[in-house]
């Protein structure tokens, strides 16, 4: 269950996800130098609009995709605050795939696997890049790119996975439905 996991905040403190029991949680791996980085703005808007109604956001910066989150935790936080006025909690930069991945991500991926990219201007770019590196990439488990989002309901169930190509309006619809 999601509440069995913990993460480390950008300030180095342990955050037990059990503290979020009864909340809707959006978990997203982010990067500051990515084509999807502007998604920080609608994610922040979600937080502003729905935090008081029970939404929590876990921003987990990750440098595994194109080296697009190269800064320290403090530098990433400063970038997000200055450019996107983010107020939601930011976690310590972490791996989401591979031998050093956060146990939380091992669990999330076991609950909701990759089902393909949504229509988006960058869909072809991503697919071509992955096909050139490995023709079987889509069949392999794992997070494919920055700004993959997992949505957890108030009971701790992972109910949705949104690839970075998903329209943020679709994410918001799902959040609203879970908040009631």
Description:
The chain is an alpha+beta fold and 180 residues long. It has one domain (2-179): Glutaredoxin (3-Layer(aba) Sandwich), CATH 3.40.30.10. It is 31% helix and 16% strand. The chain is built from 5 helices and 6 strands. It has helices at 40-50, 73-84, 103-111, 123-133, 168-179, and strands spanning 6-8, 14-16, 24-30, 55-61, 149-152, 158-162. InterPro entries: Glutathione_peroxidase, GPX_AS, Thioredoxin-like_sf. This is Glutathione peroxidase.
Task: Estimate the strand proportion.
Answer: 15-25%
**What distance lies between the first and last C-alpha atoms, to the nearest angstrom?**
22 Å
Counting H and I runs of at least 4 residues, what is the number of helices?
Answer: 5
Sheet of most strands: 4 strands, mixed
Radius of gyration: 15 Å
Order of helices and strands: EEEHEHHHEEH
- What's the CATH class label? Alpha Beta
Shape: globular
Number of strands: 6
Low-confidence stretches: none
- The third-level CATH topology is Glutaredoxin
**What is the average per-residue confidence, as pLDDT, rounded to a whole number?**
95
Under CATH, the homologous superfamily reads: Glutaredoxin
The proportion of residues forming helix, as a percent range, comes to 25-40%
Number of domains: 1
